[in-house]
């Protein structure tokens, strides 16, 4: 009986996690790991243990027996260094930590460097080369190096997963792989940058552009350098990530044609609103000839269009051969959703659905 | 080298299919099986072979070595019986065919008897008891007997899959199982009956109800008995199927509170349209206390609401604990999409993603 019980509830095996990056998403993930995420992972047969954390401004810490997450969170919240938690010889950098710390999965959440994909891509590659899995919510590595990283993972018998790269944790990449088998994605359209949606929505109500931008920055949703959102770079990086993963393209962000919402006048936005229309920064990709082309530009859409439906931080419509249009709509997105993407990727590593 | 090649491209093993029901969906599935679906299944390692077809008005045919689908399609299109294709002793009924024909998977597509779930439920149960898998695009068995049929399948080491039961082939059940692991669905809202959406859309343009209904019937999208669509029975059966599968409920269609779109006046629909609003037949489910309750009723919604976005034959928004709102939007749906649901369920049987 004891043996049967033991077989039914085997002792969870440890799953050692290294977090590179400990910002909003990393910290929320760490909090949830002490709550529901821990429960879910244990139910899936593993005991998660964070053995390494690397931060930009709060130093780093490695402890092979597992770091105290409440202590790590408290130190960082108090503006202190993680170094009191560190065990063993000093480690010079995040890069050195990724290369040498003991872990099974690298959770790569370093601040975004979208136009190069670094240092996230280097971290992911280093983890995969060590035979460790890599999970990221960073769109950079997917947009810049998905093909190479996926091949590297395959070569080392591990996984490179990135559900959080686009539309927070909304299952896009997993959906395409697991739920649309045999289907070819011929193209897509979407609204992938929520900052421009917020700003345009405010402008529709008559709020001047600068004020709307200031509000978005104050709310912490816009980048400090607004060019990244407004000029379509964020959407272009996401468009690349989607085209590369869903359409087998090999685009780089610079290959995506871009137009800025800054070229829209307040008058145009307000006039459209009066006519029951909405301007949005729309991302599109299609296969023409044998080539995938993509662009990001403001478009005027009727109010009944899915892409302008209210309450959403991201919408994507896949144009497919066997299933027609498949629309994916995220409600309000944020760190909780992105943290879930990390969890869902970890669950895939622990108990793969792919064969 | 030959051995390695053989391992890489093993000879596809046969996958014997019995089709109970050979209407629009069954025939489209058969057509596609001779084209892209066949290619996809062979790539997944099986050679599909339809060994039995049972129809309501064209007799039935069994051939253990595989029926000619072009011949079966031609016979039925010409209004003839399938009996010339039949091999072996006569078989009296669909029920007898399900019980005795040689097959690995029953594809259950008999005409809908939504208020009882029969005879589809009996067919599915009979197949499972024989140790055969069962796939259905019929919402009846899911709404009336999902718990029992799933348990039966587990007991016999086979699968009961029903992706096509709601929103044609849009991956709802598969998404929840494979892509939202660890997530609890707390409730949902959706527009699940496309006939009422069509009729209400026409009424918004000033077309009288009876004319709009006639158009929908002429287009073949409304049931001959309009009560099933208009009075919310179709949506209630789908709501049950969703609540039972996604929320662990054990509802029956009669448990779903219903209100009819017939109680809406043309004036109300037109007045709403003038104010930028839309009436739709909305399905909702929620957990209150320990109990799941569900209802289907016309609701007035603002034009920017996801549920009234244009070009869609079905929208569903899941309210979840870890991911917030997850919206699923189907473009124009039809037999192609429902046929895809059957393919996707077959792929799951051939190469399971679940562990």
Summarize the structure in words.
The structure is a homodimer. Chain A has about 350 residues and is an alpha/beta fold. Chain A is built from 14 helices and 12 strands. Chain A has helices at about 1-10, 25-35, 35-45, 70-75, 95-100, 120-130, 140-155, 175-180, 195-205, 210-220, 225-230, 235-245, 265-275, 335-350; strands spanning about 15-20, 45-55, 60, 105-110, 135, 160, 185-190, 255-260, 275-290, 290-300, 315-320, 325-330. A 6-stranded mixed β-sheet of chain A has the order 3-2-1-4-5-6, sandwiched between helices. In chain A, strands 8-10-9-7-11-12 form a 6-stranded mixed β-sheet. In chain A, α7 (about 140-155) links the parallel β5 (about 135) and β6 (about 160). In chain A, α2 crosses α14 and α6 packs parallel to α7 (about 140-155). The first copy, chain A, starts with a helix and ends in a 5-residue tail after the last helix.
């Amino acid at each position: 009986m004891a043996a049967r019980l033991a077989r039914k509830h085997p002792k969870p095996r440890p799953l050692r996690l290294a977090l590179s990056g400990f910002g909003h998403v990393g910290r929320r993930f760490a909090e949830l790991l002490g709550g529901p995420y821990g429960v879910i992972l244990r139910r899936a047969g593993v005991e998660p243990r964070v053995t390494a954390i690397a931060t930009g401004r709060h130093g780093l810490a490695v402890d092979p027996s597992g770091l105290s997450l409440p202590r790590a969170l408290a130190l960082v919240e108090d503006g202190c260094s993680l170094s009191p938690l560190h065990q063993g010889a000093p480690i010079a950098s995040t890069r050195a930590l990724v290369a040498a710390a003991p872990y099974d999965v690298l959770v790569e959440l370093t601040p975004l460097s979208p136009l190069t994909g670094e240092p996230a891509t280097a971290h992911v590659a280093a983890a995969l080369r060590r035979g460790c899995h890599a999970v990221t919510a960073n769109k950079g590595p997917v947009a810049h190096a998905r093909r190479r990283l996926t091949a590297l993972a395959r070569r080392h018998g591990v996984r490179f997963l990135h559900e959080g790269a686009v539309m927070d944790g909304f299952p896009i990449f997993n959906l395409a792989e697991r739920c649309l088998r045999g289907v070819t994605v011929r193209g897509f359209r979407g609204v992938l940058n929520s900052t421009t949606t917020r700003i345009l929505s405010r402008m529709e109500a008559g709020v001047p552009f600068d004020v709307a931008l200031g509000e978005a920055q104050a709310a912490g949703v816009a980048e400090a350098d607004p060019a990244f959102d407004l000029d379509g770079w964020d959407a272009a990086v996401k468009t690349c990530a989607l085209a590369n993963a869903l359409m087998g393209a090999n685009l780089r962000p610079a290959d995506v044609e871009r137009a800025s919402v800054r070229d829209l006048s307040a008058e145009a936005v307000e006039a459209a609103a009066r006519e029951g229309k909405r301007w949005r920064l729309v991302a599109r990709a299609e296969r023409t000839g044998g080539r995938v082309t993509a662009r990001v530009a403001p478009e005027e859409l009727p109010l009944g269009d899915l892409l302008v439906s209210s309450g959403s931080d991201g919408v994507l419509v896949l144009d497919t051969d066997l299933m027609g249009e498949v629309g994916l709509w995220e409600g309000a997105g944020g760190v909780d959703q992105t943290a879930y993407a990390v969890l869902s990727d970890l669950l895939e590593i622990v108990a793969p659905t792919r064969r």
